[in-house]
Amino acid sequence: MILPIVAYGNPVLREVAVDIDANYPNLDTFIANMWETMYGSNGVGIAAPQVNKGIRVFVVDTKQIIENLEEDEKNDYPGDEGIKQVFINAHIVDTEGEDWPYNEGCLSIPKIREDVYRPEKVTIRYQDENFVQHEKTFHGVTARVIFHEYDHLEGVLFIDHLKPLKKRMIKSKLDDISKGKVRVDYKMLFKK
Known about the structure:
CATH class: Alpha Beta
Order of helices and strands: EHEEHHEEEEEHHE
Number of strands: 9
CATH superfamily: Peptide deformylase
Distance between the termini: 23 Å
């Protein structure tokens, strides 16, 4: 089932999400719905707060990014083959490398894209959908998407990484989104 995506301005996007355990009700169905919602809105990742659940769950599919790169672009992300993965109770252990820019967007902040600087690598501890514990290091565009989705668990949005002048320049667009004055081809939930 495709879930409505929470729009900018909804308080759930600013809350720190909570860890869950294997007894969380209907988790398999919720994760399946997250995948369906992400693909239905042409996303490459989505976090539970974006579908109005304040829990530490996100899904990422960067294989679709890597597979659609031009040959010369693949050199920009050496060794990054992409992932399709569920992250539960994720917590960043370490970051490495130089900050580098990438033009990011967000399903909760439609029609706005900006360059955001993030580190090259992230080491993250998380559980998979079977609650098996992992600790892995990711790099390239996969690390980028993980950072973005992880931020949602911390109540942080990609626009929070922008310089003050850039934020002022997009303020009216953000206000329009929070008031429901935006058209997208997926279901959105606006604050009332």
